[in-house]
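Retro notes - structure team

What went well: the batch runner handled both jobs without manual restarts.
What didn't: labels got mixed up in the shared folder, which is why I'm recording both outputs here explicitly, each with its sequence directly above its tokens.

Job 1
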Amino acid sequence: MKGLELLSSYLARVVSLAVAMALLVIVGLDVVAEVIDELGDMRNDYQLRQVMEYVVLTLPSQVYDYLPFSALIGCLVGLGILAGNSEIVVMRAAGISLWRIVAMVVKPILWFVLAAMLIGEFVTPYLDQLADGRRQLQRSGMESGADNGGVWSVEGNEYIHINAVFPGGVLFGVTRYQFDEQRQLQAASFSSRASFDRARRHWVEENVAITRFSPGQTVADKLVTRIWQSELTPVLLQQNVLAPENLSIQSLWGYTQFLRQQQRDSGAYQLALWAKLLQPLTVIGLVVLAIAFVFGPLRESTMGLRIFVGVVTGIGFRILQDMLEPSSLVFGFPPVVAVSLPIVLCVVIGARLLRRAA
């Protein structure tokens, strides 16, 4: 038993290191591409330093997104090294079954999956919103106007534009347009900052400039602070600011229920919810496929070929996901089917290859 524990620890160390290196390389390449892409959007206070801060804040999100791909490449590389050194052959000759080796490889991957789930649930929604809010504020400054990007919302006869939304209920650049029943503009206001009072369930606007329109005259006024009663909450704003795939499972679940109650389409949010719920199975499915490749078709292959096959397989898996997920929205079949079908395909192919190798 002690020998098996040592072997399991050795396998875990090799595979974990390979997955970590693959994740580092893949995320590193994506960071370079992200920096180059953001350089074209520099304006106002959004310069090189701010670009680098934005990229750093979105790093956890990149780690979460690329974990399945990195697990696939890492297992191919790690097990490929062991196979190239004939260590896999020695393990099999010592009477260790193929399925036990599979279990030893999957075990350390589960720690990566757990870390990714915690990051996706508690870290990335906050940091992504912070990064987006800072970028919007730095690019638009404190000026009002729709050309600065930001978020639009409608409440009754009032149209609201927000330049930047920060975590915890802090808004910058809030413009409110109030219309009457005939759609005539009655008043427009701009506040530099607004914060949410959780105890009283309302917003407090700061440095408010108000312009009221009436027949034949325009009246301007300024207030230090103003109470703003609104149905908007920090949670609802986060759900509107972030893409569905960047929200937490809890937020996705709550928002899909809200959209259903409002009889609105929730397909995109259901897809994101199932993708997050099934991501552990996605990682395990790709790992099983990688193990099957090493013990099957790629047993005698070079490291370069293994990496190439891993990249092609990962791209193919992603393309299949990108085809099925929008198709579920167009053709109306359940989102869980669109998300789970590629996973099932990986597990079935991997299990068949492993059965042959055994």
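Job 2
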Amino acid sequence: MQNRMNKKLLSPFAGVMIFVLVAVAGFAYVKWVPYYAKAFIAQSHHAIGDSILSGKAASAPPVSLSAAVDYAMAYGKAIWQALVLGLVLGSGIKVLLPAQWISAVLGRLGFRSVALGSLFAIPCMMCTCCAAPVAVGMRQSRASVGSVVSWWMSNPVLNPATLVFMGFVLGWGWALFRVVLGIAMVLGVTHLAERYGGQHEAVSLEQRVTPEAEVPKDNLLIRWGREFVTLAIRLVPEYLVLVLLLGAARVWLFPVLGAHDGIFWIVAMALAGTLFVIPTAGEVPIVQAMFALGMGAGPAGALIMTLPAASLPSLAMLGRVFSMRTRLVIAAGVALSGIVAGLIAMIVFNS
């Protein structure tokens, strides 16, 4: 009897330890070590590579199948390891971490869960697409709408590595701009998602959470592998299709702005940045290349805020746990935040 009680007590802790070890090793290999080395490149060269939109060319290629495939290949090469890690951790949350623990820490509506979600996100440094499988696992394990949205958005928006790259490449004024408005964006969009989607999602979530009594009792690795495959099959195909479509249409979304500035281009870039998909820190070389072509501070500010914060593929991936209304609220909040940021940038950096 005592041995059975010990096993029950040790099992959740063992699962948590396995999850933490996998997460630490994965982030160290995929994020921390490469970004540490990249920071020195940014410091010495004041650049971290070519714009993923156009490479060394002045503009993106015309719409074609080749443009779609080329972008998908370049993007996939940049993010595939992080995406695999996201799928591993997203499936691992459901298998290794007790849902009641996640609910106790991140399950309440309000500032506490939002703040904890953001704090947990900062060391992860993932793009929204790679973070989406983890967000799905969190939500299916009873994390609140606010904590999931704040974790998902804080990963790219408050990424400390990106802020360092931005400081060395674009200037520390832009890095400070990103920090201040990034915090405001995360809090604002999270509040909108909780207010306009929270009650609806709380009802639908109960249909997605597997009761503890019904959890399969087979081998841990088998269950983890099954969850991984299920999550990948549900999320990756539509994700790839949307990446191909956006890659083909990038010349329409991001025309050569030249010396353009003003409200029209701020709104256009805020909308394009909300829809388009980039790898982590991809906004830094994109804005650097556009600055070289004469783009104004207003559209740059809109892109700096919206490009990393959301994308059409990542919002589609969240369709497994968030309603269409909630995702539209998130997208609208990101776009509006980008417009406000562009207006502020036009005033601050053009003065």
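One thing worth noting from job 2: The CA atoms of residues 41 and 48 lie 7 Å apart.
We'll revisit the folder naming next retro.
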